[in-house]
Design goal:
284 residues; alpha/beta; eight-stranded mixed sheet; 12 helices; 8 strands; 47% helix; 15% strand; globular
Length: 284
């Protein structure tokens, strides 16, 4: 039976996920494959490179650096999270990503992006940490209005959460029969329509299928939550979610808040470890 890991996005709410997966790594819990959306891809790739602690470390170090995340970066580069600094300078120079371990580790790793021309999800398997592969992870986390469209391997891509926010169905279709799902919103959260839809319609009018996917995202997201719930009830999924709304928005420069969200993930994972061990032992 193949065990999978499904990582929702949520920008800096993803530090909750980083806390969870650090505890899982530290306790020797392995997966056959993982899929990450947006921040889930950015932070989740550290599972395959076997680098617990890396995500919170560089977020604390650079949270006030305007090259990392700032309005200045958005205005001067077109990306709120600086593309070159976040996805190349940091992993290649300032807090090195272990590309050798990533490539050698047998765990499959998928990043979810949205093709802006079709409005559909693209599930890209990352095998190395080359410049091109890191661009796929950047694309997965490139939020509409806050990032440029990423052009990679002949595609035009944006945030995977637009088309598939919680890709449990994908993992099951890929043969992963038992999955751990990490959410970044409390279990009772339901997505509502946003005022940003009007801005998205204006900004991306050349890509009507992307706009349609964005406008339909709340319904898609809520259906996926129900699917996760049913999978949990049937014993196919184990869900870890914040017990309450995380005290953080998409953007945050206060290191104390970043650390609080990360520790919330660690605490929830530590609390649920005995249940998780029973989940993995079932059916073996």
């Amino acid at each position: 039976m193949k065990n999978g890991l499904v990582l929702e996005g949520g920008a800096l709410r993803g530090l909750f996920t980083a806390g969870v997966i650090d505890v899982l790594m530290e306790n020797g819990i392995d997966f056959d494959g993982a899929v990450g959306v947006s921040a889930g891809a950015c932070f989740g790739c550290n599972y395959k490179s076997r680098q617990p602690g890396r995500a919170i470390r560089y977020n604390l170090r650079f949270c006030r650096d305007k090259r990392y995340c700032s309005t200045w970066s958005l205005l001067t580069t077109g990306d709120m999270f600086g593309a070159e600094f976040c996805y190349h300078t940091i992993p290649e120079e300032l807090d090195p990503f272990d590309g050798e371990t990533f490539a050698a580790d047998p765990m499959e790793f998928f990043a979810v992006c949205t093709d802006v021309e079709t409005g559909r999800a693209v599930y890209h398997r990352s095998r190395t940490a080359s410049y091109n592969e890191l661009e796929w992870i950047r694309a997965s986390a490139s939020m509409p209005l806050a990032a440029r469209i990423v052009r990679v391997d002949g595609r035009k891509l944006l945030d995977g959460g637009i088309s598939d926010s919680i890709p449990l169905r994908f993992m099951e279709s890929a043969g992963y029969e038992r999955n751990v799902v990490i959410l970044t919103q409390p279990r009772d959260y339901r997505k509502q329509h946003s005022r940003a839809e009007r801005l998205v319609r204006a900004r991306y009018r050349r890509y009507p299928k992307l706009v349609k996917a964005y406008e339909e995202r709340p319904e898609m997201y809520n259906r996926e939550l129900e699917y996760v719930r049913s999978a949990e009830e049937s014993g196919r999924a184990f869900v870890i979610a914040p017990p309450e709304k995380l005290p953080i928005d998409h953007i945050e420069h206060n290191s104390d808040i970043l650390l609080e969200v990360y520790r919330a993930g660690r605490n929830e994972a530590a609390k649920r470890l005995p249940e998780l061990e029973r989940f993995f032992s079932t059916g073996e």
